[in-house]
Amino acid sequence: MSVFEHDYRPYDGPTTPLRTRPLVLARYGLSEAWGSKITVGLAVLALLPCVVDLVLMYLADNPVAKMLVVGGSKVLEINEKFFFGVLETQCWFALVLAAWIAPRLISFDLGDNALPILLSHPVSRFGYVLGKFIALALSLSYVTWIPLLVLFVYQCYASPVPWAMSHLGIAFGLVAGAAVWIVVLSLIGLAVSSWVKWRVIATGAMFAVIFVPAGIGGIASAILRTKWGLLLNVPVVMSELWQRLIGAPDVFRGKMDLPMPAIVGVLIAASLACVAVLNARIRAREVVRG
């Protein structure tokens, strides 16, 4: 049959509900992110410290192992300090994973000029960003709060003494600390990905966004002899936040002592800056070359 003889009509079948349309983008985003063998390799590598921590927890809860270890329970004590170290390790592995995954989510759409086509479908700019955010946040959850909660539950089960009820604050600190880091990393990753079209440069730019201000803040603090420059140092700010959420001993021994409102304010300001970048870059524009 010839093309002109076809009877075309609008689609009148079922449509995806408006509130679940970002989940479609999240599903394809997860497929794009985890379609790379490098992503799988990084995720497996990020879980290796958890395996080591699990072995240490088994040894700490085993009376025979305690007798064989010099120092006994003091060496293998499972407390807030132990879980603080685990949280730090997993969150910095999450940074590496985010630097690899985030550029795959937006920069490819911008580089191929596919964003106008995507936004021409019944999905808003907010829904597009939300779908990409969900894909990245779920990917980072795989190496942060999910394995951390598994370790916490195992310790509750394996401890020879009642342990769970007296340490519930650790579980809250693990989830809250990882959630804050996931939100910050996801927003930074999406903002950098929307600004830099080249994938390799976007990966390096994400590390630069984290560590260049840290160096500037350290230099400013040393020159001006003040602690306020450390608010630009994301590793210090997040370590302070994680330590307070879990209730671990002060890792900086009072040398930093950044106020909690200042820490929260810096994280909110950084998140709002990333939202502003996304608002400026995620637009349905058609490039016409004359």
Would you give an account of this structure?
The longest helix has 28 residues, at 168-195. The model has no long low-confidence stretch (mean pLDDT 85). Helix 9 runs antiparallel to helix 11. With 290 residues, the chain is mainly alpha-helical. The chain has one domain. Helices cover 69% and strands 0% of the residues. The chain has helices at 21-33, 37-60, 63-68, 80-105, 107-111, 115-119, 125-141, 145-158, 168-195, 199-224, 234-246, 260-281.
Number of domains: 1
Rg, Cα atoms, Å: 23 Å
The geometry reads as globular
| Main pleated-sheet profile | none
Strand content: under 5%
Distance between the termini: 38 Å
What structural class results from the helix and strand content? mainly alpha
- Proportion of helical residues: 55-70%
Q: Name the helix and strand elements from N-terminus to C-terminus, one letter apiece.
A: HHHHHHHHHHHH
Q: For the residues shown, what is the average pLDDT?
A: 85
Number of helices: 12
> Which stretches are low in confidence, meaning pLDDT under 50 for 5 or more residues running?
none
Q: Give a count of the beta strands, DSSP E runs of length 2 or more.
A: 0
